[in-house]
Design goal:
mainly alpha
């Protein structure tokens, strides 16, 4: 089988699993939207934003080193480093999250406080699942990655609905359902990667762990903070909207953002996983990877044009019909943010070129500029117009500009005949 055909087959494998993983949550969302109020979604979104920021540095991004190591036993050392740091950050976040949560001075925080104990668990599972996924990505075990995502998505959605029928409806059960899905996904990945566990502890030593920790320190210094900034950028609207416009409109935004982000995050990342492995191989063989870069971009572009066009034209009416009239405003928000997510879908998987070329410092600087730009867009939109629609419009336009820059820069880097830390 040619490399091109194998590449497409691998994408289809991951993509099909991702599609299945998204089917159940999307089908059950109309039920969730009628069981939980916009305020419930707003409180849940705030709690999740705190947890996601902590999870962003859980593995300190050493996971990228799993892909870049030449030898199998060396990659295992990096898995151990990532898992140990994940556990450490999870324990630290237990204290930090309590301080952050009890420091907020907004209404309706009792449900967030009750869910606080779940956030470090969420952080731990996020980091470990990521490490296992990178290991399977390295070994082209895309069916395992796909099945893990299906398990997580199905258990999460079903749990959130089931718990709402059994107990008093609170945002706590939205988060509990998510952690339940992660737990089941973790168990599946753990028992599906026996080759990772085999002989793992025999070859472990502090000196070797220290060696690989130092070798991949650029991921700890620049990439981890860049990714933290990226996650913070994604969560900023939740923090700012909660403060400026309240939990109800934040909940409208949260549903819109969730439904746009789910297919973008999973489908785009599925393609990205295959692209990472293929781009690294092409760099080793050819000294560049612009062919697979452009091939991947064209596929993502063709896949995204029609769905995003439909959302832009009909989102408000679709949301009102599917989720109930109370969620029409979420459809308006979706229309405003559609251009942003269109560019995110087509460009974000390709930015892995930065890591391959060792441009972590440059990526970190760009993320700092992004942070300033996004905060300015949201606050200026509010103070100039006092309208959430203008806030989100400026927010969306800012991201479109950022992704256009990322695409141009990533394409340039894909043509460079050098590679940092190839495997």
């Amino acid at each position: 089988m040619s490399q091109k055909h194998e590449y497409i087959r691998n994408i289809v494998t991951v993509f099909s699993g991702t599609a299945m993983a998204q089917a159940v949550p999307i089908l059950l969302t109309p039920i969730l939207s009628r069981l939980y109020t916009p305020e419930d979604f707003g409180i849940y979104a705030l709690a999740m934003s705190i947890g996601v920021c902590a999870a962003a540095i859980a593995a300190s991004q050493y996971n990228h080193g799993i892909m870049l190591e030449k030898e199998e036993h060396d990659a295992k050392q990096v898995v151990v480093i990532s898992s140990f740091i994940t556990l450490s950050i999870s324990l630290i976040s237990l204290i930090v999250l309590f301080v952050i949560i009890f420091g907020f001075h907004i209404s309706s925080l009792e449900d967030i406080k009750s869910a606080c104990i779940l956030l470090p668990i969420y952080v731990f599972f996020t980091g470990v699942i990521s490490s296992f996924s990178y290991w399977n990505n390295r070994n082209k075990q895309y069916k395992v990655i796909s099945k893990a995502r299906v398990i997580s998505a199905v258990v999460t959605a079903v749990s959130q609905v089931f718990l709402a029928f059994i107990f008093r409806v609170t945002p706590f059960f939205l988060l509990f359902g998510l952690v339940s899905g992660q737990f089941c996904s973790f168990l599946y990945l753990f028992f599906s990667t026996s080759e990772l566990h085999k002989g793992l502890f025999i070859s472990l030593s502090f000196s070797r762990l220290k060696l690989f920790g130092v070798k991949h320190k650029q991921f700890l210094t620049f990439t981890s903070f860049a990714d933290l900034l990226n996650i913070l950028l994604l969560q900023l609207p939740v923090f700012i909207l909660t403060r400026l416009v309240g939990a109800t409109q934040t909940g409208q935004f949260a549903l819109s953002n969730k439904l746009l982000a789910m297919p973008v995050r999973f489908i785009s990342s599925s393609v990205g996983e295959v692209f990472r492995q293929r781009a690294i191989d092409e760099y080793v063989q050819c000294g560049n990877c612009y062919k697979v870069f452009f091939q991947t971009f064209k596929g993502l572009l063709l896949l995204s044009v029609i769905p995003f066009a439909v959302l832009f034209l009909f989102a408000p009416d679709l949301f009102a019909f599917v989720f109930g009239e109370v969620w029409r405003e979420a459809g308006v928000f979706t229309r405003i943010m559609t251009p942003m997510f269109f560019f995110k879908f087509t460009v974000s998987p390709l930015t892995y070129i930065y890591y391959i070329n060792g441009k972590q410092k440059e990526d970190f600087i760009v993320h700092i500029l992004m942070l300033v730009l996004i905060i300015s867009a949201l606050y200026f939109g509010y103070f100039w117009f006092r309208d959430i629609n203008f806030m989100l419009l400026l927010y969306s336009i800012s991201y479109v500009g950022i992704y256009i820059y990322y695409f141009a820069r990533s394409y340039f880097l894909s043509k460079k005949s050098q590679m940092h830390g190839s495997r």
